[in-house]
Amino acid sequence: MLLLHIWLIQALVVLLVSESIGDLVETCGVINPESPVILSGSNFTALCVLKEKCMSTYEVNASHIVWKANRVLIPEEQYTVINATTSSVTLTNISLSNVQLICNILAFGQIEMNIYGVRMRVGFPPEKPKNLNCIVNEGKKMKCQWDPGRETQLETNFTLKSEWATEKFPDCKAKPDTPTSCTVAYSPVYFVNVEVWVEAQNALGKAVSNHINFDPIDRVKPNPPYNLSVSNSEELSSILKLTWINPRITNVISLKYNIHYKAKDASAWSQIPPEDTTATRTSFTVQDLKPFTEYVFRIRCMKEDGKGFWSDWSEDASGTTYEARPSKAPSFWYKIPPQTQGSRSVRLIWKALPPFEANGKILDYEVTLTRWKSRSQNFTVNDTDLTVNLTNDRYIATLAARNLVGKSDASVLTIPACDFQATHPVTDLKAYPRDNMLWVEWTPPSKAVRKYIVEWCVLSDTSPCVPDWQQESGTVHRTYLRGKLVESKCYLITVTPGYSDGPGTPESTKAYLKQSAPSKGPIVRTKKVGKNEAILEWDQLPVDVQNGFIRNYTIFYKTSNGNETAVNVDSSHTEYTLSSLTSDTLYMVRMTAYTDEGGKDGPEFTFTTPKFAQGEIEAIVVPVCLAFLLTTLLGVLFCFNKRDLIKKHIWPNVPDPSKSHIAQWSPHTPPRHNFNSKDQIYSDGNFTDVSVVEIEANDKKSFPEDLKSLDLFKKEKISTEGHSSGIGGSSCMSSSRPSISSSDENESAQNTSSTVQYSTVVHSGYRHQVPSVQVFSRSESTQPLLDSEERPEDLQLVDNVESGDGILPRQQYFKQNCSQPKTSPNISHFEKSNQASSGSEEDCLRLKQQQISDQISQSCGSEQMEMFQEVPATDAFGSETEGQVERFETVGMEFTVDEGMPKSYLPQTVRQGGYMPQ
Amino acid sequence: MLACLCTVLWHLPTVPALNRTGDPGPGPSIQKTYDLTRYLEHQLRSLAGTYLNYLGPPFNEPDFNPPRLGAETLPRATVNLEVWRSLNDKLRLTQNYEAYSHLLCYLRGLNRQAATAELRRSLAHFCTSLQGLLGSIAGVMAALGYPLPQPLPGTEPTWAPGPAHSDFLQKMDDFWLLKELQTWLWRSAKDFNRLKKKMQPPAAAVTLHLEAHGF
Question: From the list B32, B38, B131, which residue is nearest A167 (CB)?
Answer without folding.
Answer: B131
